Structure formats: C-alpha cells, structure tokens
Amino acid sequence: MEQQIIHACGHEQAHVIYGFDSQIARKARWLRSTKCRACFVADKKAEQVDAAARDSAIIAHLDLTPLTGSERQVAWAENIRISRMASLAATSHTTTEADCNLCLRIYDAKWWIDHRDLPNEEFLVQATSHLQIAGIPADGQRSAAA
Length: 146
Ligand SMILES: [Zn+2]
What we know:
Number of helices: 7
Bound molecules: zinc ion
Number of strands: 2
Low-confidence stretches: 140-146
Structural class: mainly alpha
Mean pLDDT: 86
Radius of gyration: 23 Å
C-alpha cells in the first residue's frame, strides 16, 4: 500500500511498501531515516561534480591533446581520461611521469572507452602495446627532446 513518508531531509515522498505489517513498519522506519529520491540524486550529482573538479585540478599541469572520434565518444572519453590520469597521478609512487606521458599520446576516444575498466597496471600495459602497434615509440617524445 502507498504511504507518505517524511524523509530525513524534510521532504515528503510516496512509497509503495509490500509485506506483513511488521515489515511495512520496519521499511517505513528505515525510509524515514534516509533522504528522499530527489535529494539522493542531487547528492550523488554533487559528489560527481566534486570528484571531477578534484581530478581536473590534479591533472591541470598536463597538456591534454584533443581526442579523436565521434562527438559522443570524445565527450565520454575525455571524462574517462581525466579520471584515469588523476588516478595515475595520485599513485605516483608506483607510476612514473613517463606513464602519464605515454597515455597522453593515445588520442583515440574509442580506445579510452574500451579500456576504461582496467586497473591502472593493466591499463599501462595495454597503453604501451597500443602505442607499439601504432608504431609510436613509447619513449619517443622524451628521446626526441633529449
Ligand atoms: Zn529531500
């Protein structure tokens, strides 16, 4: 049956709760201790914005080259790249600057999307082999600069 629940955030929301009376009472009690759906979504959004801002600040010094791909792929891959680079930068004791430079030479939006779920170590292995297959020496820029 439908119940109006006043959530911890002060908003009222209708909930359909099924079960025995005791279960309904328990569920209603629990719901009252949580935030309403709108506040929950707003919180999650704010968290994501915060995380994105933090990640962008961490990699602000990096020179990010534009990605190639469809508009949708590029927009998605740019977010993936930002959080990946921030994650690599945050674990600098295991990752060298060369690793970041390596990733910055991958411009293919689809590649970033395809490899978004890999752990950092495996990701770097894939990045290295991707550049080798593409015929780009892994330390190309650095030896050219030296
Ligand atoms: Zn609310």
